[in-house]
Amino acid sequence: MENNEFNYDEIRPYNDNEVHDAFVRACQEPELKSVLEFIYKDKAEEMRQYFLTIKTVEEFQSNVIAPFVLKVGEMTSDGLDITGLENKDDKDKCLYISNHRDIIMDAAFLDTLMLKQAHISTAQNAIGDNLCAKPWITDMMKLNKNFLVKRSGTKREIFDSSIRLSSYIHDQITSGSDSIWLAQREGRAKDSNDVTQESVLKMLSMSCGKDMKQGFMDLHITPVSISYEFDGCDYLKAKEFQQKRDDAEYKKTKADDILSMKTGILGYKGRVHYEVTTCINEELDKMVSAEDNRATVIAAVQKLIDQHIHKNYRIYPINYVALDELNGNTDNADKYTNADKAKFDQYIAGQMAKIELENKDEAFLRTKMLEMYANPLKNHLKAIANV
Description:
Blueprint: H1 19-26, H2 30-40, H3 44-51, H4 57-76, E1 77-83, E2 95-98, H5 105-118, E3 124-128, H6 135-143, E4 146-149, H7 155-175, E5 180-183, H8 198-205, H9 212-217, E6 221-228, H10 234-246, H11 254-266, E7 270-276, H12 281-287, H13 294-311, H14 317-327, H15 338-353, H16 362-385
Helix pairs in contact: 1-6, 2-3, 4-5, 8-13, 10-16, 13-16, 14-16
């Protein structure tokens, strides 16, 4: 299965025969105990003991992760659903590439919906190694079918890790056991203008071989369009926009990342919809030839992924409200009610009130939040106009 040039042990998820030892290590950590106490209250020790009996990754995902994610969905959303997996089979391995709204929940919701609604095996998920600050966190991530993407190091180290990552993804899809999920960009699109990052596709191209077109087609790239009605982190993203505007040297701290993760999990999301679109191979086959160079093929793949994601957004009334308020008109008033507008305005006011800045620029911050809700609609309208 694996390319003999690479050892994937450092980045790959755990196999079933590694599950018990990983839980033994993790369960010895006081920090995990604190996390379990926060989640499970007086049943924390019972859960810790249960962890030590788990024998497979599937058991962990089905009996621990999925119920937790569904509970989060129940508490923080007005419903989760997925379409497009009706005819998917575990034999149909592919590379799912989605827009990126939330650090944790994008992949967590997708896997849970795969497992509980579509009844197919979960994908392996790419996560930045910056999220794995402690060995026990790495263990828990790998137990949940996550593989690690190196985010720091010298240019040479990043280059070498990118080649290994590219090879790993190709090996998994062409001869492994799982599909792969990958966000279309490193980091979230804070303004919700979802565009596939060229560097992600360049990484994937590193193991395509001489026939770049066939190399990408071997991945069976299947875009996934994620539509959160509300983004609990919107006010944090708006705040960061002003901080970067006012200070060119501004950089987020680890505490900021932790707050974003916590807010993304616990923040109100409204309705959440995942649309698994069709594989791009048929369209890619018509757009490029085997003789086309790397840049041409990458540009075509990028265009197709973006079109699929934009075309398949679930558009909510508040997206039309945001676009009208951003443009200062009522061109889309037939797409929402007065109640929809009042609910959105009240929500934005509440999120704005959470922003604490010394020189708080209310007009700038509100504009940034409106853009977050208007941009998916803008891109959707462009995509369907070009069909």
